[in-house]
Amino acid sequence: MHPDLPHSQLKIRRVRLDTGRENVVVVSRRSKALRAEIFRGFSRVELRQGGKVLLATLLITDDDTLAAPDEIGLSEPAFRRFAEAVGTEVTVRPASPPESLEAVRAKIRGRTLSQAEIGAIISDLAHYRYSDMEIAAFLIGSASFITSDELLALTGAMAQAGTQLVWPTPVVVDKHCIGGIPGNRTSMVVVPIVAAHGLPIPKTSSRAITSPAGTADTMEVLARVNVGVEEMKAIVSACNGCLIWGGHVNLSPADDVMISVERPLSLDTREQMVASIMSKKIAAGSTHLLIDIPVGPTAKVTGGVEAMRLRKLFEFVGDRFGRSVEVITTDGSQPIGNGIGPVLEANDVMAVLGNEAGAPRDLREKSLRLAAHLLEYDPKLRGGAGYARARELLDSGAALKQMQKIIDAQGPSTCSNELGPLSFDVEAPHDGIVSAIDCLRMNRLARTAGAPLDKGAGIRLFKKIGDRVEQGEPLYRVYTFGRSEHDLAASATAGDNGYAINGKPLGE
Amino acid sequence: MHPDLPHSQLKIRRVRLDTGRENVVVVSRRSKALRAEIFRGFSRVELRQGGKVLLATLLITDDDTLAAPDEIGLSEPAFRRFAEAVGTEVTVRPASPPESLEAVRAKIRGRTLSQAEIGAIISDLAHYRYSDMEIAAFLIGSASFITSDELLALTGAMAQAGTQLVWPTPVVVDKHCIGGIPGNRTSMVVVPIVAAHGLPIPKTSSRAITSPAGTADTMEVLARVNVGVEEMKAIVSACNGCLIWGGHVNLSPADDVMISVERPLSLDTREQMVASIMSKKIAAGSTHLLIDIPVGPTAKVTGGVEAMRLRKLFEFVGDRFGRSVEVITTDGSQPIGNGIGPVLEANDVMAVLGNEAGAPRDLREKSLRLAAHLLEYDPKLRGGAGYARARELLDSGAALKQMQKIIDAQGPSTCSNELGPLSFDVEAPHDGIVSAIDCLRMNRLARTAGAPLDKGAGIRLFKKIGDRVEQGEPLYRVYTFGRSEHDLAASATAGDNGYAINGKPLGE
Fold first, then answer.
1. Which residue intervals define the domain Pyrimidine nucleoside phosphorylase C-terminal in the entry (chains A, B) (predicted)?
2. How far apart are CA B143 and CA A292, in angstroms?
């Protein structure tokens, strides 16, 4: 805080500009009291009203309809977070950068940070005091090297920055998959099985950011997922489980902020991934956690060495925070189930839970295997009885019944479950055996088709690895709602349709 | 480039939003053809029209006056750079990040980059293809460690990215000060002395970003400084020298882009400073370069070890690019001259050139010393004759005459040279001897007073280190144009006025 910096009163105006995560404000170049050029050295300003403070990135305008000389225009996130009425007078002054940035610069220069320094950084991140550039500075400064102590401090600080859930039972289980495999909706089968057995499994999930569907997007086809903390507790108390969107529960706000910058930069470091996942699970009050790492040539993790390193990191952090963490690797060589996209994936899930004849066997088997691990956290099932119990709960219809109970508790879906009316098939160019399916390519194709925005857009797979196909036989069908999505998806499959037939398996 | 990504035609609209360096565009949430949510995974879009391509950061709006569903709003820098009329149809699609970002990520992971990789990064930077976050990623990834070869590649690529000047004479001299000392306007005395002798010295300078005056801001009080390349050549041909703003000459566009991100992050690494300065001097065609490193407790460089490291780096890069580089350290313990702020500094410069009685001796002596070094690049003056020749040119009025010639060639100033009408004096709180003056604090105070925006705002110093003062005697006078600047500056001096009297010198 520089007491000698200029400041001034300006009236709030709302600017309907969605600036993503970042607080952005607009000031007139002819600003009555605040001369924009004084700010040249400062790209950030501080707004004060009563006890409230908001840090924001400053843009200058010559358009009075955005901000007149006596006004300050608040973009949507800034307006929402500052929560003051249009016309309210606020004090505006150039903002000194958050003090914790000094620690970020020290990290960039190669110094190891203390727990207190990391705590201050995470607190400032969670309170939206960092600009996107400053967030990037922290992430990149930490990307090349962080110590084990720094990783623990980071995880702990992130877990404490938001909501922290406490459950009345000694064992609270959870599962997490590090992602990347299309159609991999095991949580929606595992949760009802485990909940039907009686183990609490309060599952929060994410929405898709770069994939065609997150578990939250798929569950939304069946039930409401925008559920707050108190309601979540009531649902878990009644049903032993839930399948809701994590965004409303605010378990690791600092993580949400960091992800918004990691994604556009495609930064992906092991340590940050582990801190991100573990902070959310610790804040969620889980005592026993199963981590699923799919390994395959087009999966996030492509080899056993990398999977082992990740496993060690997860176990290390879990140990230090007194959580039991089990890490398993699974087959990530191709999509799981037949559908890719929210409605198609929800259909797969309900077919497995309903023991339907056409239900995808791989989704069923993987879900049973994961559920078995979780069930064995129940002392009565320890030592190998988990799988039989999981199968029993699934085959008997108990899991389906539990799923209906969870759906009823969360409330009805407001989404249509119709598939896209425009579809086309992609056919095998020659006879042979499917030798590989490119997960990255299938994800991108399903997004081009309109998923997750169009819940019923996506891909239905007819063939998987090992299947024999004849020339002209359909490999998969693409569903879209609009002509332009249809044409774009069709042209995207023209060059490389994502399937290898009689080829070498990918990555060998 | 993903051929399978959606794209669409939208009409250009101009949005009067100054987004600084970054290209920003605005699309309606109800965009007719381009559904904003498809873009969730992409924060960047690509605009195409004819052969032109522009990469920009995407914002979403619900306000049709910013962008209707069939429009795309271009913020000021994007509108200026794309240079297409309002209403023109452009193709818009999600943008793949520049390919060179892969090398940035490799650098973050700790790999050393090749010359080709660094060349690609710098070219993308200079063509505004990086977002601010991506620029930060490169700067921070390189901040902790770059090899000597990387430093050379970086300097070379930056020098080649913009205008490269070629002069008809074998010796072209230049000087550069790494900055931070208030009032330090030696260039405006050195250039006319050296030019009067007949050595070409085509000096480009920066405007203030965080200081109260850059040499370009101060020269602008006396003459026009917004001069382009061809005109610059004519001026140097006629006068042997010039004192113009570097911004119009575009010597290192990649550097300008990087500085726009380094500043808000306060990133300051030796290597990036050396690459920045040397790339501009190489592009400017200088053969002999004098670097001035002021050392003092509140200067940029606070000790001899740091100054020596910088010197070695400058000499290393100079050698490899075949430029003669001489690095000297100077006294950076207090402001140079009596004035701080464009008009006050211009007055100091003209008083020194005019040999006036009250001219600041420290500015005169430092300028003579620097001019002496530069003059000895003339073989006829080698070996110690530079100082006498510099003094001769200054005392005889030849330097003043040369300055008038340069001013006439550049054209008349359009700025007022009036001092701010509201002023106040800061007085010594007790008798004693001035033991220290805080450069950082005086810079900030002059900015609070309104410099460099108000050319006549700033500080006139009456006392320097070693001067005896009596209680109540004025130490300096602060000039402002507005009541609010006056009051803010007055309150800023109330706590700590920047002067130590009878104290320990700072830093000891």
1. 433-500
2. 36
